[in-house]
């Protein structure tokens, strides 16, 4: 399943990344609209604000070697490389994205600070304890094995290094609301199909994985309200002639994703989709076993 899923993800981003950049810019992630989601701001500024707010929340003030897991066309990677004067390695399943990120780095004069390559996040081609900061912004939802993914992120961290993972989740199921209903599962399945996702889990489940991996100083947060307006902004921008024309030339998968933007918007409205944050530090031990 993983190989087939990886091929689907690659094909989806190979086909859609050019259009996304043309219409929406280099940042392929949510925007931040204030803690309550009521701030009015330009979409790209909201995306940059999300990066800054995440760094502030996770208390990342400096880093020398950064891994961007699911780097897209290098939006976050280039921002972090310039902000911290750090060396950033970005990985993606899409050769088109890796090539475009490399081009953008050259244009920005950041070729010496960045490297982009095609790699599987479940089997990273890096030695243990390579990076002092692992940044994963909206890539965890694509992972068919959440434990293996977090284990790999932990493995490549240096002792004392920090993981910041931000990912799509579903609502917690251990509270009053209980297990997901049949209608909620159907809604999620439609999102999975459109956006090439195997499944998502709740934020408490991610926290449990992090604890079993032995990460220290674990923190979590739900920023669903802060980012939910993003999808309505994207829906509005997708209605302009340039976006519609671009969709016609980008393949059925991209068209289907654009037509299904409302799935995410409605998912946030009903409290089903959650925007989960988790950060933690690797301990001094060089091993990072899963004690499940």
UniProtKB/TrEMBL annotation:
Region described as SAM motif III: spans on this chain: 156-165
Protein's UniProt keywords contain Transferase: yes
Gene Ontology biological process: methylation
Region feature (SAM motif II): 129-137
PROSITE patterns associated with the record: SAM_GTMT (PS51581)
Assigned keywords, A-Z: Methyltransferase, S-adenosyl-L-methionine, Transferase
Positions of the UniProt region annotated as SAM motif I: 66-75
Domain of life: Bacteria
Entry protein name: SAM-dependent methyltransferase
Species assigned in the record: Chroogloeocystis siderophila 5.2 s.c.1
